[in-house]
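Hey, resending since the last one bounced:
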Amino acid sequence: LMWWVVVEWGAVLGVLVFVVTRVLKQDKWLGSIIQLGEVQERQRVHAEIQQERRQSCVAGKKTKASVSTSAAAAAAIQATSAVALATSVKATRAVMRTTSSGIWRLTPVSERMSFTLGILNIAITAYLLGAWPLKGFPLWYSFKAVVLITMRWIEFQTKGTHYLLFDFCYFANGLLLCYVWILPDRADLFQIVFLTANGPLAWAILAFNQALVLHKWPQITSVFIHVSPACLSLGLRWYASPASGFVVCSPSSWPACDEVTGWGMLSLAVFGFYLWWMLGYYLFIFIFMQDYLKTRSYTTLYDRVAGNQMKTLFSSRFVADLPDLVKKAVYMAVHLVFAVFTMSIATILWHSWELHVIFILTMVSMSAYNASSFYKAQFRDDAITLAQAKRKHASPSPSPSPSPSPSPSPSPSPSPS
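The structure tokens again:
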């Protein structure tokens, strides 16, 4: 199996290149390939911030161009600065009394509760995964899956986007629940779950810039859907002994599970689960339900991807003139390539506890890294709000100007040399 070793090391090199380009923000050339999967709640934090910065720079240039630099304007600014300085202490105290409480009132109670529960979730998840990976953590994962996905379905139904829940990510989570509660003695089922959890689901964190924004429960749900299955697979793969009731491989070879090969797992996951989901999705969403979804203006994953993330691909001359069903087949083919590539990388994690832990920590860290940009923008907006309130309180009320004292008219100031 020398060729398979070459493929695995090639996959490792591909991972390193992907991570480096992602951190350096040079991933535009990957955009048309990796923009797949769960995109209905995707937050393009970096792109939005860059666009806001460009807009602010343009606005700043316009503002600077509109300000007169004449000597008369400078004298007027200097004259009003004394009044502003005299009221600065009073204005600052007023800002502290009003804007701080105002910003607090602008933060909804739901966001405060979401932030608090998000912090508790991180602590409980880490503790249960380390202390009870076979009892407490599966229960915790199942509880969150039922609650969060049900809340998402209710929210999406009100928006007409509930058909987005037919995406592969939700079916993979459902398969994991099926293994935990119905068929824990099926080793082949766990191997499929292992590749899907550490393949397309986990890689969606990097592919879609999913952020661990703790005060937004939709973002918490997205990170949960794509990270928690990998965490659960870690506990089951390395700590589920044959006596625990969870079977991950042949009991005689546990915990090494040397009889499980990468090619065997990949074939099982692709032909035993993924292709069946892909065929069912294409027939149900694109053929049987096509007219129904169109008449009710329901959004599907293909609509989001083809119109935004993969717009370049679908507007190219090679794809733009194809029939609609053929375009959708091209989309599913790209989805398949992404899934097979990421699941091939996941086969490496089956034989190394260290690499598996490093992989999960990397994905969790990247979700926190993506959230840092969101909070940076939030802090900036709060600072702008405080500055605007301060200017509002510091601006003097109009009053009649005092009569000027007699003084010799000043001579014109010389122009600056």
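Residues 353-394 form the longest helix (42 residues).

Sorry for the duplicate.
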